[in-house]
Predict the structure of Polysaccharide biosynthesis protein.
Amino acid sequence: SSKLLVTNIFNHINNNIFTVILGKFYSGQEVGYFTQANKWNYMGHSLISGTVNSVAQPVLSSLSDERERQQRAFRKMLRFTAFISFPAMLGLSLIAPELIILTITDKWLPSASILQLLCIGGAFIPITNLYSNLVISKGKSDIYMWNTISLGIIQLTTMLLLYPYGCTYHDYSVCIHQYLLAV
């Protein structure tokens, strides 16, 4: 649908603007640490999301005419996703310092604490994606589009408001934003 296309385009633009603004307000070192942490966080939650999405969308779409069966299937998927996502992202958070040292050397060790924080929010992203699949399977791509656009605007606004307080507050806002997406 065209609304899904608009949503994907908005996401790409928002992510690119986010990176540019980050580079404008913070030092190269801080941006580097955040970028490394965000990269590892993304790898963690996207692995889970990809697995869940490959099953969720076809199943939820095939059950779109049977509301009760769709709800039962969604609840099972939600429990399964939470069962996988929370322990996996907690595990990534716990091994963050060792992972950073082992993979990209101790030069990037300060990004480990950022990764630990981002993993908290990252645990909610597969759940958010599952809810998005449910909304899309019900043919409500307009709700998905406007929700995504609204949250993107809120994220950028929050970033602009918090930049005077430093990169740490920005990291917390990213974590909170990821949590709010799931709520």
Observations:
- Residues 2-182 form one domain.
- Residues 28-62 form the longest helix (35 residues).
- The chain has a mean pLDDT of 90.
